[in-house]
Amino acid sequence: MKILSICLTAAAVSTGSTPARALAQGDLESRIATLERAIPQLLERSEVAGLSVAIVAHGNVHWARGFGTRNATTGELVDQHTVFEAASLSKPVFAYAVMQMVERGELDLDRSLAEYFPYEDAAHDPRYEHITARMVLSHSTGFPNWRQRGGQLTINFEPGERFSYSGEGFVYLQRVVEQLTGEPMHAFMDRAVLTPLGMTRSSFVWKDRFATNLAVGHDEDGTPREKNKPDLGNAAWSLQTTAADFARFLSAVIGYRGLAAATVATMLSPQSAVDDGVSWGLGWGLQDTEVGRGFWHWGHNSGYRAYTLSYPEQRYGFAFFANSDNGMLMLDALLAHVVDGAQPGARWLDYEAYDAPKRVIRTTLERTIREQGGDAGVAAYHQIKQESPAEAFAEDMLNTLGY
Known about the structure:
The protein contains 13 helices and ten strands. It is α+β, with helices and mostly antiparallel strands. The strands form three sheets. A six-stranded antiparallel β-sheet has the order 5-6-7-8-9-10. The chain has a two-stranded antiparallel sheet with strand order 1-2. It has a two-stranded antiparallel sheet with strand order 3-4.
């Protein structure tokens, strides 16, 4: 079976004013009970093996439980202390620390980063001198997501002109932060965020102590991958964390702990337009729905997937971490269980769902071919095509099946 280990974090209603759509305590308990009933079925239907869940209410970890295994070979169990790769969920944690520097006057959001740190990787293009921290955090630097291996870092449009998601931008801002603080990024993050928030099983570099309870990444076919153990921190992707630790971070953002309310409001204000109902703030994606404005992000490392969404006015949110390339197959179903309303952020990402007709047909035909041979697969194809919607037989599905 495929492996999936997921952390859900939800910050529930706090004391004070209560938005109309916020959850009451009874609603939260009902959602937990629904998740407990639904998760085993979702795991089976998605062909995944492990799940780790943590829910936060009123600023505390309200409930934590592991489901299934964290390693397909060893059968080791997932629990609330299991360490995952956060992938791009590293970015908003780093952005939180950067905004602390902005509050202290150590970094200006709109000053050229080249004035802080000349960046040789991009200095061949004079437009790099226009890049600011605001542009990095809102993904409008003009950099690609990642340069080609061994290739030159390019600037694809005038910085600040439009949105284009970029890990390279975060690496540049990391170099600036290291220059200003005089310490490696991972040490700065320990001091500024992880230790103050009690994230004791989190780090932007590998720690040997994580090995005793690690969620190993897996390929689509469920094969365990060799763990990447970064010894140099990367602000864009290298955070190692747990269900409970990320819950502490999420509740800190919602509760204005470590940042002033005005600073959080700035982070959650649109800076770059992305799609209908979707924009980017400073470190966070934003979505505007009938429920209100939510802040969200997703992560995608080899063998790992992640997603988080919160509604700050309701003081409610969640995140999940998956140790499988199939990790997003359950995204839509989990969103339906834990939040209300439309999900433009997830729609924009456009990940395939476990029950999408194209996937159901493709996996059925793959299984038939493996078990019964090509002729049986062709016969099954013609039969299924007569019984299924035409859009399920799009060219990309057929190409994937052929390969």
